[in-house]
Design a protein that fits this description.
two-stranded antiparallel sheet; 6% strand
């Protein structure tokens, strides 16, 4: 029996809020990744990890906010909590792999392609693992071509996001990049949802169970609190607004260690073999040995 699906039970509310969640996670992740390029190697992993968790939490929250509006008329939907939270962990880990590759290898060439592919596959895997955590009196089937299209969208969106993380400087550019990322992630989600059909096992009617919103809302509290905390960290870090320290052109080539850039700007006078600095003669002193 074919199920009757409604993906927009709350109208435009869930797609809009889901889009904003994706934008929030993307914005925080991009700014943290940019910040990581301005510090030494010892502190870089912390910022990259924070950026990974922000993007992973953002896309996961976006997915399940959107799923609040998803209902099957003939049967209630239940969510397997271990699988649902496993999809969050998978998103953070695979996004992290891509971000660390770009953070240390640069947002160009093979590193960008590899990082974007891994991150995109992580986003798509999070989506379909989250769908696998849904239990009802039936099963999902998917259109292969539409699923493939959703994966391609995820990979392209992830690659663009990682490129932006390594290249984009300035607050307004980062906002624009996060909006594009949010739109792409939302597009991937709804493309994936368009790929599914619902097949029911019985004809018993609606049954008992809470609404998707009442089931999912408690599960979203933790990731939302984390995004809020990450936002506080970003807002109170002075280097996050413009993406670079004032007065220094830092990390024009993404992935270059900040320490190397700093040492370039902090060069001292050349030294003799004995360690004494070579000082250039002052032109205002024109005395010769005969005049002394």
């Amino acid at each position: 029996m074919q199920g009757t699906v409604d993906g927009f039970s709350y109208g435009a509310v869930t797609p809009l809020v889901a889009f904003l969640m994706a934008c929030l996670g993307g914005a925080l992740g991009l700014r943290c990744t940019t910040r990581s390029l301005l510090v030494t190697h010892s502190r870089r992993p912390a910022w990259l990890a924070l950026g990974s968790a922000a993007i992973g939490s953002g896309i996961w929250t976006m997915h399940f906010v959107a799923m609040m509006g998803f209902t099957i008329k003939e049967t209630p939907i239940h969510y397997d909590k271990p699988i649902t939270y496993a999809s969050l962990g998978l998103a953070i880990v695979m996004v992290g792999v891509g971000i660390f590759i770009v953070g240390y290898r640069g947002a160009t060439g093979t590193a960008l392609f590899t990082g974007g592919t891994i991150t995109g596959l992580g986003v798509a895997s999070m989506h379909y693992l989250g769908m696998a955590g849904m239990h009802f009196d039936g099963r999902f089937t998917y259109n292969t071509l539409t699923v493939a299209a959703s994966v391609v969208i995820a990979v392209v969106a992830a690659t663009a996001a990682l490129w932006a993380a390594g290249r984009v400087r300035g607050f307004l550019w980062s906002v624009g990049a996060s909006l594009v990322m949010g739109l792409a992630v939302s597009g991937m989600h709804y493309t994936g949802m368009a790929a599914l059909d619902v097949h029911l096992h019985g004809t018993s009617g609606a049954g008992t169970g809470g609404s998707p919103a009442s089931v999912l809302a408690p599960m979203l509290i933790g990731p939302l609190a984390f995004l809020l905390l990450a936002g506080v960290v970003v807002m109170f870090d002075p280097l996050m607004v413009m993406g670079r320290p004032t007065g220094a052109a830092v990390e024009e080539k993404p992935g270059v260690p900040a320490a190397a850039v700093a040492s370039h700007h902090d060069r001292r006078l050349p030294l003799h073999s004995g360690g004494r600095p070579i000082r250039h003669p002052k032109h205002h002193d024109s005395r010769t040995p005969q005049n002394r």
